[in-house]
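Supplementary notes for students who missed Thursday's class. We covered one full example, reproduced here. Read the sequence, then the structure, then the short commentary at the end.
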Amino acid sequence: MGKTIAVSFEGNQVKIVHASLKGPTLSVDRTETIPDDNFDAYLQGDKAKEYIVTCEFKGAHHGVFTVPIVKAKYLGKIIESKIRKASGEKDFAFIYRRLGERTVENRKALEVFYYAVSNTDLKNIAVRFYDNGKTVKALYPSVFSAVSLIGPGEEGEGFMGVFSTGNERVVFSTKNGAVNFIRNYESDENGLTDFDIQNLNMTVTYCFQNLRIYPSSVLLMGNLSGSSDITTLPSAPLADLTMSDNIHCSRETYNDFILPIASFFTPGPSNILGREFKNINSLKSYFAYASMIFIIMAVLCMGLMFNEAKDTSGKKQMVTSSAENIADIENIFSEYVAREDRIRQYRPAVEFMNRPSPDIYKLLIALGGINIRDLKFNSIEAGVNDGSSLIVEVSGTSYADTYSLLQASFKDIIDTLKKTEHLEVTNKSIDLANNTFKIEMNYKTQ
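Structure (token representation):
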């Protein structure tokens, strides 16, 4: 990974870690803590392009439910449907963890822990980076970053951890290394207090009574570890989270920046970044590589043209020196014309390489900001129409229960698109049999 920057939004502060990751070894180069209000100015002045981001989403939905045991390709859809019914959210992104199988009404079922965040909350974080020309490589909920520093333990063993983000405490429990419970409460104290012990004891009791898990220990993370003045007896042993040997920094830095440091080790499936922003990342990488190839091809073509031009100049000298011999002049002139034709063959390629690339980024941001309600975009295809516009085709699926709802949602999207600057809707259609729709547009890029 090399040089990387991790950012953690914690209350009204943003904690930033600049580090080098070589294999499993992390070396912290420097750290910063800035007010959240100053973060946009920080991004404008920072030279880095990619960031790993951790955030505590206060409006997140999470919990445990059982689903039928099905193939992996169907599991995500089933979980998404159950989250929609449980949370009431329509536009959201989610991650989940398998907790194991259990028997429900004499049938085997899969127990799953889910964590869902509205796409509006995700965009409020991600857009701050994209508006400043930066890329969010991954966006992790803080609890999934924190748990990456805790080993799975023995089979069936559960741990409990607690850490702070601003004035909020986050308590979580794990089973076989996977999160299966999260609880938040507020506290204005910096260190561990009797109030924290009381909340931890209540959480331990709840987990034992409802999840049938009694944690072997409660791990104190970040600034909650170390010495403290407590008089309340904890119902489970307390232990400071140990600092792994592959993390190179002071213990003080480790405690103060525990979440951004943990995000370097958070696995990819914990990335809750929405599909729209993941597609933008892929497109930006594609255009970066394509631009490099175009530049190389343009240089090669220019070199070839230069060589051809040199050859042509030599032929002209031969024409001058052989002016007395009419037959030789005619032969040389014919060869000169042939060379000219070869040069003309390369000119369209060079002119094509020098054309500015279409502004697909602004188009994707415009589409990503549309409230599609109970419709879903399946694909967005764009092709160059001329030097100043793109032909865009969007196809999708409806989850509306009735035809009238489908028509209303579809009309809202069309009305919004018509109001979008530089965007003209040229054709639209609905397939009622398959609950699908298609919109064709012309997007002016200049």
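Commentary. The first strand starts at residue 2 and ends at 10. The chain has eleven helices and 18 strands. If anything here is unclear, bring it to office hours.
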